[in-house]
Amino acid sequence: MGKKMAEKVRNLPSLVVLLKPDIDELIKAKEWREIKDLILSWEAPDIADLLRELQPDEMLILFRMLPQAMQSEVLAEMDTEDQELIIKSLTDEQVKSVIAELTPDDRTELFEELTPVLTRKLLSLLPQDERKEALQLLGYPENSVGRLMTPDYVALNYRWSIAQAMQHIREVGIDAETINVVYVVDDEWHLLDDIPLRRLILADPAQSVESLMDHSFIAINAHADQEEAIKPIKRYDLVALPVTDSEGHLLGIVTIDDIVDVIEEEQTEDLTKIAAIEAAPVGLDFITNIKEIPLTKLFRSRVTWLVALLLMDLITGGIIQGFEATIAKYVVLVTFLPVLVDTAGNAGAQSATLVIRAMALGLVKMKDWLLLFSREILVALGLGITMGLGISVMGIVRGGSAQIALVVIASMIINVIVGSLIGVLLPFIFAKFKKDPAAASTPLITSLADIIGTGIYLGVARVFLG
């Protein structure tokens, strides 16, 4: 025992070792102000080491006497057990002031070490902007549920009576995001159930909260993608969705108003990708405010894809150049080229839009690609024949011969089928490579249809016309 004490003393800073006997004497005499004046010039780690050597009540007294900014620095240097002891001893306003002075990395380290209960309490005391920063630094991935959740909810211990539960709701419910549903936890803050407030109100005050539990609830992990929160809220008509960690501790809730914001954000993101607009230079919150976007950022958000598509379109010119002889002999073929490739691109854009939207709603999975592909063949065949009949008259009138009309009709049917199949397959290909299916944008499909459609049309013409 003596050896351990000696090692402990040797590990303490020389300043603490030297002055500890004098400080002990001052504590016995209750000369707290003299102790405060003595240690105010110390560095935060030295003060933390001194407090660690004191009895819990002595530590709390001395900590509370420190200036607020110094309290934050000292708290960041203390052990987890001492941090919890101090936080539990302070009022909410005092805790709020102390953690507000912590640097973001010190605050994150503090939150990671504390119990889920204390972490929830501290998060609830932070202003909204600082809470978002804290959640971000806590390691929750971007666009995860953890970044979205709020700790402002009502939780009840399963052992409480209904009377105790109602009293607790009256005390804390005013600051909660919603009290339509309250959450039942155990002593370690594991989520056990959710109970509608209506059932609590109608229950006998002498009943226990546990007696109302059916252990049937829906929750989501904090690391899940925020889009995943949309599905259970929509499916089960929830006003709030509890968020837990990997061990089932209740961390917060995601409310329906947060989900509405997510839906709006995701739809904006999908629309920008479908239109081949790069949102990164501007940000999703800003991109729809086109009156306020700086021209340079507006330019950057649109130029990347346009340049990429321009390079793809140059391939079309190369294909046309390869059929110069056929075109020179039958110049009228050029007049049908725009309508053929545009119709194929439009058909592909239709197919892609339907698939992308179905994927976003979770109605279509990767395993469904073959089913949709086979169905699209039949639909595209019908569309191709319809478009072929539609252009047949013009083929005869403008082309001046049955051969030209036959080339145009056959090319239209083939192009519509190919364009439609590209539109169906491209979102699945993007999803396979872990890319957003919405990135299979309309301009991309149109450019592919231009390239492939031009090759098909001129190839058919060479076969039929020689």
Question: What secondary-structure arrangement, pairings included, does this model have?
Answer:
Blueprint: H1 2-11, H2 14-28, H3 32-39, H4 44-52, H5 56-65, H6 68-77, H7 80-89, H8 92-100, H9 104-113, H10 116-125, H11 128-137, H12 145-148, E1 155-157, H13 162-172, E2 181-185, E3 191-196, H14 197-202, E4 220-221, H15 230-235, E5 240-244, E6 250-255, H16 256-274, H17 284-287, H18 295-322, H19 324-329, H20 333-360, H21 369-399, H22 402-432, H23 442-465
Parallel strand pairs: 1-2, 4-5
Antiparallel strand pairs: 2-3, 5-6
Helix pairs in contact: 4-6, 6-8, 9-11, 18-23, 20-21, 20-22, 20-23, 21-22, 22-23
Brief synopsis:
The chain is mostly helical.
Beta content comes to 5-15%
- The CATH C-level name of the largest domain is Mainly Alpha
What strand line-up does the widest sheet have? 1-2-3
Coarse morphology: elongated
N→C terminal distance: 103 Å
Calculate the mean pLDDT score and round it.
82
The ordered string of helix (H) and strand (E) elements is HHHHHHHHHHHHEHEEHEHEEHHHHHHHH
- Which fold name corresponds to the CATH topology of the largest domain? Tetracycline Repressor, domain 2
